[in-house]
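Students often ask what a holo structure prediction actually looks like on paper. The answer is less mysterious than it sounds. You provide the chain, you provide the ligand, and the output is a string of discrete structure tokens encoding the 3D arrangement of the protein together with manganese (II) ion.
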Amino acid sequence: MKLPPHITEQQLSSRLDRFEIETPSWGYADTGTRFGKFLQDAAALTIHDKLADAGHVHTLTGCCPSVAVHVLWDFTPGTAPADVKKFAESQGVRIGSINPNVFQDQAYKLGSVANPDPAVRQMAIQHLLDSTRLGEALGSDTLSLWFADGTNYPGQGHLRRRKRWFAEALQQVHAAMPASMTMLVEYKPFEPAFYHTDIADWGMACALARAAGPRAKVLVDTGHHLPGANIEHIVAFLIDEGMLGGFHFNDRKYADDDLTMGSIDPYQLFRIFYEISLAEHDLGGPLPIAYMIDQSHNLKPKIAAMIQTVMTAQEYFTKALLVDHHAIARARDSGDIIAAERCLQEAFTTDVRPFLGRYRAARGLPQDPLDSHRQSGYEARAAADRLPRKPRASGSYA
Ligand code: PSV
Ligand code: MN
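The corresponding structure tokens follow.
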């Protein structure tokens, strides 16, 4: 592996040591599309199953110490937060971002915090405040907000008024957050709303995060862009504004496809990581960015896909660290476009897998976590434990 002059293998390793990736509880459970679900025998049913799976992924990869939770999907009435926190610790992980759910209830048909009915707006705000408290009890330091609010037809909503309702709600929630908590505001241009969404893009998320307060930042979900959007430019812009809070990684070909990270366009992933690596080089240290996975593919086996994703994240993050910052600066400044682009291509095409194998071995981790998972028998054991708890026997889900 050819290293650029500004970095040693030792420095590469210590940067990677600080590259943590949060896995989502919902990524271990059965998911599907609006046309149906293909259920998996080993997919998790309860928060305990999900945390056990996340613990297994962390044991094999060493870089996934936290788990994102989705309030209504993970906390059924009677689930004690203290028990969940303790159970997570027993599995070697902690609770990461807390994701409120103001999209599922029938009351939210016309929106949550932008609903024309003040009682529904209040109900949504109350859930956000309750989620903040729950996050505190779980030891979470990140409140991650995504809203399905929007309209399906022109004329359906008062767009400016809805914007103001959003700003007011986020301010109220921000004021209630403990000082240690960061609010992340996610954007999405469409789905489930198909005419307008109230936080359609990074600029709107940025404006609303600024209105909310100093601890609110923007969350970039890579699947939440219209075709052709230059995501790495958005990332660079947000970093410069001090407003990039984190990522939801996944990949897509057509829309918010929720395929696994890097499966369709790994060069885009590399370019995103390059903008981060360049900013860290310029600023002299790691940026406080929450790297999280948010995928909802429904065909790959859940845990294996998660491990594959984490390995992909490490691979492309490492490749981005290999860009020769001095050489590319020289090429850029002298207008040598081809030489500048080649600096990126050289790093992108470098095979970093042997290095990552050595890196993992030095930390007592399997060199190939995916292989180790496949040989571990974990999935068969999980299936044996979970299948009897599923509504139907294997192969006969209706
Ligand atoms: C919405 O599409 C989203 O990206 C939000 O982050 C949700 O919390 C998540 O998906 C649910 O899978
Ligand atoms: Mn997301």
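The CA atoms of residues 95 and 139 lie 7 Å apart.
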